[in-house]
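Shape matters. As here.
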Amino acid sequence: MDLSMEWECTPVEAPIENDLCTRIRRSEQALMAHHEAVLRAYGLTMTQYTVLLVLAREGGMSGAQLARSCGVTQQSMSSVLANMESKGLIGRETSPIHAKVQIATLTDAGQELLDRAYREVVILESALTDAFTPAEYAALCALLERATAVLVQQTGNTTAPPAG
């Protein structure tokens, strides 16, 4: 079913709550609010938690690599890493390949904090998984991947509005 013609010709009459983008955004906001509330008890921001998680899974990484993994700018990541290093959650050493690049690694304290926070974060993952049958869960994951691909593709296709 091709809805593109319908969208172009039909005035916007449906409540905004019915828009798919609004539903996705509301889900993302609820997820972030939950994670932020859990992580706040551990003195972590979502970005700091993601840094710990990425380093635990991938090993040492540069600030630029971590910025890409966390979806933040390199400038933001620089201050995040400085803060985390001052708390003893990560260590940074000069890259053996590039003298100007610092490689961040997880410290024992960072791993311990991640382990404690993750035990609470994973409760939501389990609750979400349990809310669906295995077939529904697989379908939801596939649909979310497809929606993400469309969102990424459409972001690349954006153009500036006409001057008016």
Summary: The chain has a mean pLDDT of 88.
